């Protein structure tokens, strides 16, 4: 792989570009990071992410310009091991875990990462969805033994105080994915939690969600997760995360988070409606996990991987372009069901690069 320099501009899609750079070994330079903003340059959570990536890898050199509006990254090897990181209270731990989950299977030693901060907020995936949905997506690629996310403490915004531990095994190579049968929804699972508020809020969210879901399917299990005392963090908050699983193992997920002055019932209804619209879009993978699945398909063994998903989000479209810059892999995207003009589902297929984890210690 040539270590030629790739240049990007803007603060968007920073995380996926850092991940692609570390995996492909190509140096990147990102400039024009919020140059017009009244507070220009990198935000504290972006710098914190760079520090975390520096700890998870060995030999990575990150240079940030004086104004913070440009950065240069020379990637090292992904080393793994035991890492403890404190996340700033401007973003939840999901923001930091998503890129790490993409890198962890290719490290030298199995990763044991402890993150502290806010566990659930409205910008990023909550730890519940990362645990139940994101990790089960990794299992499609043969990454399963010892893969775990433990929620030690919850932390609602703005005070945080949560703690999660992420354990990830290492693999030599990921399997090729062939996932084009979405199947029919067979069960719905969910977790609601309420910290530092009346514990009844949790049950009220569940009842509201059931009032809609009971019309569709009998197999519904919504679990109320209770955290007491120290384990419930520093701020009050509650949320409901639900997921629907199909007969072929396709998972769609949605969540809603407490807002000031909104009743728990409305949060329950909001999450449920979001889940139904996600199921309506169809496909085998929901929109929030498109980039993870596509990345693992690119890194798959030298064979054609196929996956059926709904139309790409703006983030996914940019990700496909970035993948082409870093790995030279382009996807073939065709309509999943040409006979049905109403269907917006697409089949994404690509030829894997046969990426082999060269970092791992040979046993």
From TrEMBL:
This entry carries the following GO cellular component terms, namely: nucleolus
> What keywords is this UniProt entry annotated with?
Nucleus, Ribosome biogenesis
Q: Per the record's keyword annotation, is Nucleotide-binding included, yes or no?
A: no
Localization, per the record, is:
Nucleus, Nucleolus
Q: List, alphabetically, the PROSITE patterns matched.
A: RTC
Q: Which InterPro entries is this protein grouped with?
A: RNA3'-term_phos_cycl_insert, RNA3'_phos_cyclase_dom, RNA3'_phos_cyclase_dom_sf, RNA3'_term_phos_cyc, RNA3'_term_phos_cyc_type_2, RNA3'_term_phos_cycl-like_CS, RNA3'P_cycl/enolpyr_Trfase_a/b, RPTC_insert
**The RNA 3'-terminal phosphate cyclase domain, residue ranges:** 7-333
Coarse class of the protein's main subcellular location: nucleus
Q: Which GO terms describe its molecular function?
A: RNA endonuclease activity
User: RNA 3'-terminal phosphate cyclase insert domain spans which residues?
Assistant: 180-279
* GO biological process terms, semicolon-separated: endonucleolytic cleavage of tricistronic rRNA transcript (SSU-rRNA, 5.8S rRNA, LSU-rRNA)
Per the similarity annotation, which family is this?
Belongs to the RNA 3'-terminal cyclase family. Type 2 subfamily.
Q: What is this protein called?
A: RNA 3'-terminal phosphate cyclase-like protein
